[in-house]
Amino acid sequence: MGDDHGQKHKADTAEFTRRAAALVPKLAQRRRETLDLRRLPETTVADILDAGFFKIMQPARLGGFELPYGSQVPISAALAPGCGATSWIVSVVATHHWMLAKFDAKAQDDVWAKNPNAYACSAFGFAEANVAKVDGGYKVSGRWTYSSGSNHADWAMIVLAVPRDGQSPERRFAMVPRSEFQALDNWRSVGLRGSGSNDIVVRETFVPDYRTIGFDEIDLVDSPGTKVNRAPSYRLQTFGVFNLTGVGPAIGLAKAALDAFTDGIKQRRGTFGAKLAELQNIQIRVSESSAEIDAARHIAEYHIGHFQQEAMTGKGADKTHILKHQRDCAYIGRLCTRAAERLAEAQGAGGLSEDNPLQQALADIKGVCAHITMGWDANSVPYGKSLLGIEHQGMI
Fold it and tell me: CA-based angle 35:330:310, to the nearest 5?
């Protein structure tokens, strides 16, 4: 397809979703290789770049497709039946690029002007970090955790905690080029095993001011990036809206689990010869799980549509909607987990194989739901407070 694909063909979300579905057989063939590598194979990264998935919400002025925020959900959901890790990384990276579009224009140019296919991993938590304000920027070193896709990424978006006298540290996102960070080989997980979510190390690196943005700035409707990126979707607040990141992978993986179960059970017979598909308890399980998956998808579609309408107003998302959205993304995680667990319970000993696609899908769903944006306890509290008339402070 090449770097100029977006200029020659105006692709929409439906087109990218079709491309994702077409890639599923290849991803499924590489599933064992991906698990063994604990990262995406080079061939999969090449397929992602060729399809343009990382660029779906990247600014058009820098080679992206500038699709509406929320497009990552159906596209990543369509990829999930082939590979949960691929689905996760596509959704995460696409969201990073939407966030980067809110940085100063010069930071965006650093990342994409010479290479529109460049992409960024992220690491928002840190095991250790030393940050000092210096003339023109920040001196940075430390170790940041859980950076999905860090083996191949051209840039890393990390969080700085900048010391302030007599106050809590100021939190800023910062962009660090590949030459200035190292990905460790320490990701050994059951869920999302192929995501390569390693720690990254930064050693005595200078980060200029313009390649950073404060949490308060990136959460503005009129962020620095909207001076050059005028598409409505960039005029949404970041925190709360960001929770959509894990929704597509969770829904796609739950549907993959349902399909694997129903395909496998149709010809199976029990110990005494009965066809398992004719047992009422099996029929109840598949029906209930399918209802949960459908409910999860409808909830996601509601919020995506609502955000796109709010973006068009230029005023950003309503605060109550953001709180409800945080709650609902975590609830989608619960629905998808329950749907897969119910089916896994009915597989018996035959479902315990490490190559069982339903078990892998369930493990990956749990990996997705371990993310801060999908955890039920943290994300249900803000909306619960609002119902009780209690003001909530903070992002989550």
Answer: 115
Amino acid at 227: K
290 is written with which tokens? 């399918």
Look over the chain and give the mean of its residue pLDDT values, rounded to a whole number: 93
pTM of the predicted protein model: 0.94
pLDDT digits (tens, 9 = 90+) for 130-187: 999 999 999 999 999 999 999 999 999 999 999 998 899 999 999 999 999 999 999 9
Q: Distance between CA 297 and CA 252 in Å, rounded?
A: 9
Secondary structure of 210-245 in HEC code, one letter for each residue: HHEEEHHHHCCCCCHHHHCCCCHHHCCCCCCHHHHH
List of long-range contacts for 301-306, beta carbons under 8 Å, 24+ apart? 303/70, 303/244, 303/328, 303/329, 304/70, 304/73, 304/244, 305/70
